[in-house]
Please model this.
Amino acid sequence: MDVFISTQAQSWALAAPTSRAATVSLSPGRAMLADFKGFGVCFNEVGWKALSALGENSRAEILQTLFSGQGLNLNYCRIPMGANDYSLDWYSHNDTDGDLAMQHFSIARDHKLLIPYLRAAQAAHGAPFTLFASPWSPPTWMKTHKTFNYGTLIWQPDYLTAYADYFVRFIKAYAAEGIRIDAVHVQNEPDSDQKFPSCLWTGEKLAAFIRDYLSPAFKAAGLDTQIWLGTIERPSFNDWIAPSLLDPETAKLISGVGFQWAGKGAALRTRQVAPELPIIQTENECGDGKNTWDYAHYVFDLIRHYLGLGAEAYVYWNAVLEDGGVSTWGWRQNSLFTIDTQARTYATRPEFLVLKHFAQFLRPGAKIIECVGAMSGNAVLFALADGREMAVLQNPLETEIIVAVALKGQVANLALPPRSFATALS
Model:
């Protein structure tokens, strides 16, 4: 059994099983739900700006580490439709007031940063990957208040029809660039009135927009792009999920539900009510820019929570930021890599190691397996597509623990240092 261990002092090391007596155990139970599709990140303008400060070789090293099969193989990623909180400034793809015919729709802005970022990532990956898109705000002239960070979509048929067309044109424009948008989530955080681009919805309006406008527009345009209910950031199933799932017409149209932040509280209820409906995690909680080892343990708990519910994908937020991780509106956030733009150097951060313990070996087709035993609250088990089994564990304690791990009929005792992560492969 191969064992890899990370601690704050030793970032990644091959370890050997111990002969000492086990104190806690971990064994595989039943297979969970659907095949795991992958890990990913969100492509944001600020990230490509940071990467562009590096020399070509250093930039290529980061991209290979993140997206290649020899690295994390990140393959399930997200892109904003227009501006978000890590854009350089606020914009939409049609800022022409009153243009309900969408004659001035354009993704010209995305050619500056987002499309080069995407193409560089796909080149490092070696193949197209799953890509989903979501708006943070409609064009301001389509909102009750003409600003990116306040208000709601004007709820009139001509505006709703035009906004559905906005989605269609976005998907087609990216397709013309050779970039397939596999799915859309109707609104980023529909219940959050933020300083950065945002738009408020209700669960009932999300269901109605999908049923009466967005799905018909996709069908008329001949699009096979999936429509997901997301990205849900609140814990109330009744407020945000039930209006779509309990409407017979809307329920047939959505391909899954995407959750982030406090939405993790609604994921379990969704799984209970609709056990066959795919779910994914759409945005890793982003910390405060300090990139601490403690927060890395919190991120492990997030991954364990979602994957333990059978989430098909887990999407990190910013892969790369400048040191400090300051957003356009002033919030400092964590990332997998940070870049010193003056010295033109980069550094890996603790959450990169958390993802590495999972993504280094996971490939699409792996199945999440239920954990059994005293260690089950701190572990995730997988049956890999190549026939092996894998366990990813954390020791959240300040003391060493010995864990008996059973994989493929073999049992090994692993010594986990204090506050560590480990991956065991059969």
Remarks:
- The domain at 1-36+366-426 is CATH 2.60.40.1180 (Immunoglobulin-like).
